[in-house]
Specification:
Layout (H helix, E strand, L loop, with lengths): L1 H27 L3 E3 H7 L8 E7 L5 E2 L5 E7 L6 E7 L11 E8 L5 E8 L10
Parallel strand pairs: 1-2, 5-7
Antiparallel strand pairs: 2-4, 2-6, 3-4, 4-5, 6-7
């Protein structure tokens, strides 16, 4: 009887740990789309949580007066499509024009991407300033 209780309790604990691990992995393993892929989805992309990869367009960065709202446009190097982005939050120090970024959020019906997360891609090799 005692071994049976131990086996049932251990099984419940292992199932709970497995479920939590799977949930964390599924949330972290979100695929990111290019701008062209998001534009090709059309209406089906609205209100879906997406990650989009693109480069920041020169001259498109507009930091709001409060400093917490950042508006910019990203483009797909391969496809040439562009997507306006509105991000509200703290801007990463490595964010700059022509840098590669990944934004996470949702596409609104007016064609603007509302981002709640902004990730900048760091260069694979750092070179000292000349």
């Amino acid at each position: 009887m005692r071994q049976r209780k131990f086996f049932i309790g251990g099984s419940i604990v292992l199932l709970a740990i497995g479920f939590l691990g799977y949930s964390a992995f599924a949330a972290a393993a979100t695929y990111y789309f290019t701008v062209s892929e998001v534009m090709a989805q059309g209406d089906s992309a609205y209100q879906e949580n997406l990650r989009v990869n693109g480069n920041v367009v020169s001259g498109s960065v507009d930091q709001g007066s409060a400093g917490r709202v950042l508006k910019f446009t990203i483009f797909d190097v391969d496809g040439g499509d562009s997507l306006p982005v509105v991000y509200q939050g703290i801007t990463p120090d490595t964010f700059k024009v022509d840098s590669e970024v990944v934004v996470e959020g949702h596409l609104t019906p007016d064609g603007t991407f509302q981002a709640h997360t902004l990730l900048t891609k760091c260069p694979s090799k750092y070179v000292p300033a000349e």
